[in-house]
């Protein structure tokens, strides 16, 4: 029986996968008549004399830049929505005026105080600003990360923590430029009182009273904080994920969720502890002047650290560490699991539509 065009294509791809230097031109001599004398696509390969062109529109896992943005956006929205109450606790604790004797000196007391005074909805103040910022910021975050991870060789076999860390740092610099203005609005709305009526009123008030620069007063601190956070986060995530996949190679497909949850959780926990003091500085800069909070003459990180240490003691720089770890450990696990699940869905979608 004569070989069909489909059988011929599959034979060529199989032989080329076994031997990259397989002579495709010679194989055309034995091709079905319908394939001779013309250029034919063979999957991602085009058969031309002595030329093999690769489709570069998609990266190593078959997704394009737009699809990375979509996956990242979904992951960011799921993560921040699920963990928003814990983020509110962190913000309240970091803005407490006194480290000792305050009603807001512990996670439990802060939670109880909010429920008694404001009800459950108090835990969700500012969620609108989060929704406006988290989606676009995470779209930029993950798409830039995947792009530079590919360029830095992070997708090659083995562990490449420097490549993953460097790609993560570039990604956070880009995403923080998108998220910081809405993060300022979110944190101000999370504070008690009725200083603002909502997202729009907060934005207008900041522009009218403090000017556009107020939205980026903490940007330098955010980048300085998130650069080591992200480097540690991505390097830890990729290392733990790779180790787990090596330990369970025959069960990787069955335990993907476990792998991503474990790796993401470990990365979030480690990175959040290391960067807590800078997160306190960021929160103080973003919420300065609200409800009588102290204002700073400069956005200098060192100046804010000295002011907090002198007025409240060095321990104040660690305030909010517990809710920060409680936030980032499950948040990172949720985010990575959602991101990888969305990527898997899009990969299946691409295959079914090719």
Automatic annotation (TrEMBL):
An annotated GO cellular component: mitochondrial membrane
Bilayer disposition of the protein: Multi-pass membrane protein
Record localization: Mitochondrion membrane
Keyword Lipoprotein: no
An example Gene Ontology molecular-function term: ferrous iron transmembrane transporter activity
GO BP of this protein: iron import into the mitochondrion
Solcar repeat intervals: 63-151, 159-243, 255-345
InterPro entries: MCP, MCP_dom_sf, MCP_transmembrane
Keywords of this entry: Membrane, Mitochondrion, Repeat, Transmembrane, Transmembrane helix, Transport
Chief place where the protein resides: mitochondrion
Superkingdom in the source lineage: Eukaryota
Pfam families: Mito_carr (PF00153)
Assigned protein family: Belongs to the mitochondrial carrier (TC 2.A.29) family.
Record's protein name: Uncharacterized protein
Source organism of this protein record: Ceratopteris richardii (Triangle waterfern)
């Amino acid at each position: 029986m004569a070989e069909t065009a489909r059988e011929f294509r599959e034979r060529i791809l199989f032989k080329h996968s076994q031997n990259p230097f397989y002579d495709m031109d010679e194989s055309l001599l034995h091709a079905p008549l319908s394939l001779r004398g013309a250029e034919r696509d063979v999957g991602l390969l085009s058969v031309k004399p002595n030329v093999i062109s690769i489709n570069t529109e998609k990266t190593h896992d078959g997704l394009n830049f737009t699809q990375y943005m979509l996956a990242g956006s979904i992951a960011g929205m799921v993560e921040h929505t699920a963990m928003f109450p814990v983020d509110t606790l962190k913000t309240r604790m970091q803005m407490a005026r006194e480290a000792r004797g305050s009603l807001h000196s512990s996670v439990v007391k802060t939670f109880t105080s909010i429920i008694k005074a404001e009800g459950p909805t108090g835990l969700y103040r500012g969620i609108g600003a989060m929704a406006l910022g988290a989606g676009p910021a995470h779209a930029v975050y993950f798409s830039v990360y995947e792009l530079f991870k590919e360029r830095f060789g992070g997708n090659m076999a083995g562990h490449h923590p420097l490549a993953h860390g460097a790609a993560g740092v570039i990604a956070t610099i880009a995403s923080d430029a998108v998220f910081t203005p809405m993060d300022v609005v979110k944190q101000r709305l999370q504070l008690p009182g009725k200083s603002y009526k909502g997202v729009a009123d907060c934005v207008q008030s900041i522009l009218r009273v403090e000017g556009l620069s107020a939205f980026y007063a903490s940007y330098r601190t955010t980048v300085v904080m998130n650069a080591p956070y992200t480097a540690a986060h991505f390097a830890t995530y990729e290392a733990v994920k790779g180790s787990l996949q090596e330990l369970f190679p025959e069960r990787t497909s069955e335990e993907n969720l476990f792998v991503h949850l474990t790796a993401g959780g470990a990365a979030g926990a480690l990175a959040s502890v290391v960067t807590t003091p800078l997160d306190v500085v960021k929160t103080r800069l973003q919420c300065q002047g609200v409800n009588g909070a102290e204002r700073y003459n400069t956005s200098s990180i060192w100046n804010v650290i000295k002011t907090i240490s002198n007025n409240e003691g060095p321990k104040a720089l660690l305030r909010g560490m517990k809710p920060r770890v409680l936030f980032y450990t499950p948040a990172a696990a949720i985010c990575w699991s959602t991101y990888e699940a969305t990527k898997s869905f899009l990969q299946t979608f691409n295959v079914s539509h090719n």
